[in-house]
Amino acid sequence: MAINEKRVAQHFRNFERALSGYNYNEPLSRYLTRFFKENKQMGSSDRKMTSRFIYNYFRLGNALKDANLLDKLCFAEYLCEVESSLLALHYPGLAEFSSESLEYKLNHLQSKINLDWKEVFPLLDHLSESVEKESFVRSHFVQPDLFIRIKRGNELLVSSSLKEKGIAFKELNPNTLALPNGFRLQDFSKLEGKHEVQDLSSQKTISFMEASSAEKWWDACAASGGKALMFLDKYPKVDLLVSDIRLSILRNLNDRFDKAKLASPKRQKVLDLTLDTTTILGKEEFDGIILDVPCSGSGTWGRTPEMIQQFSKQKLQEFSDLQKKIASNVVKHLKIGKPLIYMTCSVYADENEQVVNYLVDQFGFKIEKMELIKGYENKADSMFAARLIRMR
Ligand SMILES: C[S@@+](CC[C@H](N)C(=O)[O-])C[C@H]1O[C@@H](n2cnc3c(N)ncnc32)[C@H](O)[C@@H]1O
């Protein structure tokens, strides 16, 4: 491979500039969109390389903290790519092994430069017990897939349209497809409203939400309705109340329902679940509550690796306290004998099993089903879900 040294140096300078302007107050993807808009002189290959470098850099998380920027990027390129001009230029000895497995390359860097995989991801000793630590950490060097959930009744139409266009996809079940990352679904206007972008593990949580037609349910942290859309696609006759602390996000929910050509849930409320909910809901009780609580999002950091360096024990404690408070406040609105579906997109026991155990101890819930859904085995996010029955 002939290396254009000037181009490689230019790509590295672009990366340095993009990185130094990032202040972590917004998602990296949004920052980069703005950065590219403000730097119109950058061509498409410059933009592509800057994105690649900055994402790969963040994938190293907290490892190699003392290494200089160029070295760190080279090692990240080694782990994340099978071919890299930057690596070939600066570390030709490593570049020779670029096409080896990730496991091999991690071991190689461990022996060569003391890279310790245990330093990549924060607070590994807090992970839910069933997470296999090394595989989980390793998964952060690979970009997850893009998953869609096909609305019931549209399975054939969506998959045949993609086939017609020669798009390679994996069918995981009739309603779930994995697509190559970066695939521009928005270019397929014909398919609008017939599918939702939704991670594989998130789709799996539907098995925790078993409901019956005439029931009344509450999605208490509905956000823009990812779970609500999935729930009502399966249980269209359930009477669903959706609420969130943010009014703006409920507007997004309505937009998504409009696009999906589904009637938005009739009952919507802005509700802060850390406060007394009876002022708004009175003594209302539900046949089921979906509680997809605010969390660290640590099961999704393969998509947002910029978050890895920002996390701390204190933040974890704050999330765990908030989750216990929110869960405690919704319990009184659940009928006895009915399920609370507690969910996070976190891999930390403090936000998962520990909150469930708290609910069991404080309110006598029975655990019907509980699982850390291991997305890292399928190029997907990891999530936690539990179906808890109120016994008293
Ligand atoms: C993990 S997201 C929910 C995702 C959503 N269920 C979905 O599937 O798209 C958590 C939501 O909790 C909301 N939230 C945060 N603090 C809250 C509070 N104190 N009371 C109610 N909702 C809160 C956030 O606004 C956020 O939309």
From TrEMBL:
It comes from Sphingobacterium litopenaei. Residues 123-392 form the SAM-dependent MTase RsmB/NOP-type domain. One of its GO terms (biological process) is methylation. InterPro entries: MeTrfase_RsmB-F_NOP2_cat (IPR049560), MeTrfase_RsmB-F_NOP2_dom (IPR001678), RCMT (IPR023267), SAM-dependent_MTases_sf (IPR029063). GO terms for molecular function: methyltransferase activity. The keyword RNA-binding applies. Keywords: Methyltransferase, RNA-binding, S-adenosyl-L-methionine, Transferase. This is RsmB/NOP family class I SAM-dependent RNA methyltransferase. S-adenosyl-L-methionine binds at residues 244, 272, 292.
